[in-house]
Design brief:
Blueprint (H helix, E strand, L loop, with lengths): L19 E7 L2 H11 L6 H10 L5 H10 L4 H10 L3 E6 L9 H21 L4 E3 L1 E2 L5 H13 L6 E3 L14 H10 L3 E3 L6 H8 L9 H15 L2 H4 L5 E3 L1 H4 L5 H14 L12 H8 E4 L6 H11 L4 E2 L10 H8 L5 H15 L6
Parallel strand pairs: 1-2, 2-3, 4-5, 5-6, 6-7, 7-8, 8-9
Helix pairs in contact: 5-6, 6-7
Length: about 350
């Protein structure tokens, strides 16, 4: 499809940089069939039911749009990219991916999803880049799938949709995944998931369990668990990515540093041990941050000031958030041209190993 397609009301391709969107979702139709079987079971996880159960059954225009776009890796997606002025998408298996499945199904379907996404990238190599989906339920198998994704499918990043049935990557039993990612020099994108059972109700009863607040709280918690568990002291070259303006962690940096130090000194918790660095140091050195869903100049510039302009990337959050006017607003940010190009293009090319064109 013509990359310069536009209409009077849509942004054209920018003359100074490519717009690379780095947290964009897809869902194979076969995965939705698996989801339907899970949703038909008597004791369905309430977070999963509230998220995918809603989107897969609601007649609302928003839900219908999302489901139609999630399953498309061709003309619809390309048309929407062109209409919004997006040159390239970095695409990942939508939450919860395979992480809601039983272990055997999850391991098998992660391969299927990766093969489908790799085929789409081969069809549209200048428009799509893929992330490797894995099943944390089997960390050894996940490590092998990362290796296959890099060496056979040509992908250079991993997607993990936060907790896996209430379990977190801060548990050392999952650390084969970190070892593989560090060894192969591929970042792990820690993407939100629906809230686990023991967090769900207080958020759900007031409608705050989803993207409005709950996703950020849970994913920010997960990232902090990884930091405070000493993962980056064990794997110092490991890189991770978090979206939605860092799930607010950059804005908490000062207090995280102060209170982590105070908590270590107080010896209040056996689980809080000294780290080699401050929590904010790991945010600056081991995390990249995308603005997915936060098309807001003050937040973007603040985060650039905290973690550095080389570590903040553009994302749209398609198809859950799709608004061409947000692209235009970010084009107009008051920011040095070099920094804006890093934000939209060159940081993504470096992190996801996207060949310049």
């Amino acid at each position: 499809m013509d990359n310069d397609h536009t209409t009077k009301n849509h942004p054209k391709r920018h003359p100074d940089y490519l717009r690379i969107a780095t947290e964009e979702a897809f869902a194979p139709v076969e995965m939705l069939d698996i989801y339907r079987k899970i949703l038909a079971q008597p004791d369905v996880d309430p977070g999963f039911k509230g998220l995918m159960g809603f989107y897969m059954s609601s007649p609302s225009a928003r839900a219908q749009h999302i489901m139609r776009c999630l399953t498309d890796l061709g003309d619809i997606r390309l048309q929407h990219m062109d209409e919004a002025g997006i040159d390239h998408q970095v695409i990942a298996l939508t939450a919860p991916g395979v992480q809601v499945m039983d272990t055997a199904t999850a391991v098998s379907f992660a391969r299927t999803a990766n093969d489908q996404l790799a085929a789409a990238v081969r069809r549209h190599p200048t428009r799509f880049t893929g992330m490797i989906a894995v099943a944390p339920q089997d960390p050894a198998a996940a490590a092998k799938e990362i290796e296959r994704g890099v060496n056979q499918l040509g992908m250079h990043s991993v997607i993990i949709n936060s907790h896996t049935q209430g379990e977190y990557l801060s548990d050392p039993k999952f650390w084969d995944i970190f070892a593989a990612a560090e060894a192969l020099n591929v970042p792990i994108y820690l993407h939100p998931n629906s809230l686990p059972r023991n967090m769900f109700q207080p958020f759900h009863e007031c409608g705050l369990d989803g993207a409005i607040y709950g996703f950020g709280v849970e994913t920010g918690l997960h990232a902090l668990r990884i930091i405070t568990a000493g993962v980056f002291d064990r794997f110092p070259k490991l890189q991770m990515i978090i979206g939605h303006m860092g799930e607010a962690l950059p804005f908490w940096s000062y207090r995280l540093d102060y209170m982590h130090n105070a908590t270590v000194k107080s010896q209040r918790y056996d689980s809080v041990k000294p780290l080699k660095k401050k929590p904010s140091d790991y945010l600056r050195e081991n995390f990249y941050i995308t603005n997915s869903g936060v098309a807001w100049e003050p937040a973007i510039k603040f985060t650039q000031a905290v973690v550095g302009v080389d570590r903040v990337l553009y994302a749209m959050d398609y198809p859950y958030q799709y608004a061409a006017d947000e692209v235009v607003a970010l084009d107009a940010m008051t920011m040095p041209d070099e920094d804006k190009k890093k934000f939209f293009q060159t940081n993504a090319q470096r992190v996801f190993k996207i060949a310049p064109r």
